[in-house]
Amino acid sequence: MSARPSVIVVGAGISGLSAAHRLQAMGCTTRVLESSSRTGGRMSSRRHQGFTINRAANILPTSYRAVADLVDELGMGQQIRAVPGVLAVPRGGRLHRLRPAGRRLVSDALTTGLLSGRAKAGLVRMAADAVRLRSSLSYANLGRAAGFDTMTAAEYCDRHLSSEAYTYLVDPIVRALFTTDADRVSIVDFFFAAVNFVGAGFWQYGGGTGFVTDALASALDVKTGVEVTEIVEEGDRVVVSC
């Protein structure tokens, strides 16, 4: 009987842990090396004064089926449930709410007092572009949309939308999801978020997004505080230096 393949995975973020999980399920002996003192990377959480704080990722959209499937596979499907999302944008001293999913988003966008009729008319172009790009906005390979990566979200608004749509719709979405301004985000990033995040519902979860990476790490051989300095191929093996 041949020996089980031995694999080292560098990095204990969601990508590294998921890869190690799959390799282990295929029969490989896996070890995950992480330079920091904790696992999870950008999909991790911490407790502070009674509150759970996500270090980076906050939103789990229902359109990202890979995460939901992984949660089910880990036996934690009961810890998440789909809930309708609501976007609230302030204007004129009140909050204007939009339900960000399918026909409800279209209905709310047409009837909301957030935008004038002229600004709403300009959104037809944005909706058409979103449909055109949709098949290229892949979670697995965003490079498929490289041909559309020709301007920032702010430049797109300058060319095709009103300043009103930029101020009260595009820029708030960008700041909420990317924590930066629309002049620093590619139009591809904006449409990816608009189609896959804003145009979907959300998973409700407890305990922070780190519940996924914590579960993965608990079933794997993970070494934290180990910095990989070099990886060299030597014939039919790979030497990893730490």
UniProtKB/TrEMBL annotation:
Every Amine oxidase domain range: 14-242
InterPro entries: Amino_oxidase, FAD/NAD-bd_sf, Zeta_carotene_desat/Oxidored
Pfam families for the chain: Amino_oxidase
Membrane-crossing residue ranges in chain numbering: none
Superkingdom classification of source: Bacteria
GO MF, one annotated term: oxidoreductase activity
Protein name: FAD-dependent oxidoreductase
Species the sequence originates in: Candidatus Avipropionibacterium avicola
